[in-house]
Write a structure and sequence with these properties.
mainly beta, OB fold (Dihydrolipoamide Acetyltransferase, E2P), five-stranded mixed β-barrel, 2 helices
């Protein structure tokens, strides 16, 4: 009988909830954080349409982080694929806290047409929509290395 390994994969399309924030690690690697909202409509048991919004934080690294910071703004539509990561810490009252975010492998800019940005500016070889070499490596860094 074949056994299967675990799978940690996220794919979603949504709109940015805020402008991206670009910072750099002490080693000079770009880190960009932004949030996306994914809308869903479903019909409840009473037959009424219900709108639901899922808010997700996203982190990108390296050249892709710089491209996201340069070309994305609040309200823009993106497709994100990556892995779910968790961060844990103690708050000021000593309580253990956990947050989750997507560590993006790729971010595709979906609605830049008509924005005045030429496609070759944001979709160059090895940039923006294409993962960098080595992004499959473990990108775990300590809380002290994250600049925000």
């Amino acid at each position: 009988m074949a056994t299967f390994g675990d799978l940690n994969s996220f794919v979603g399309i949504g709109r940015l909830t805020r402008d991206p924030e670009l910072r750099y690690t002490p080693a000079g690697k770009g880190v960009c954080k932004f949030g996306i909202a994914i809308n869903r409509t479903y019909r409840n048991q009473e037959g009424d349409n219900v709108d639901e919004v899922l808010f997700i934080n996203v982190t990108t690294w390296g050249k892709q982080a710089e491209n996201c910071s340069q070309f994305l703004k609040k309200g823009r539509r993106v497709a994100v694929s990556g892995e779910l990561r968790s961060n844990s810490w103690q708050d000021k009252d000593g309580n253990k806290r956990v947050s989750y975010e997507i560590s993006a492998r790729t971010v595709q800019f979906l609605d830049l047409k008509g924005s005045g940005i030429a496609p070759e500016e944001y979709r160059g070889e090895g940039e923006g929509n294409v993962p960098e070499e080595g992004t499959s490596e473990d990108i775990s860094i300590s809380e002290d290395d994250i600049p925000f």
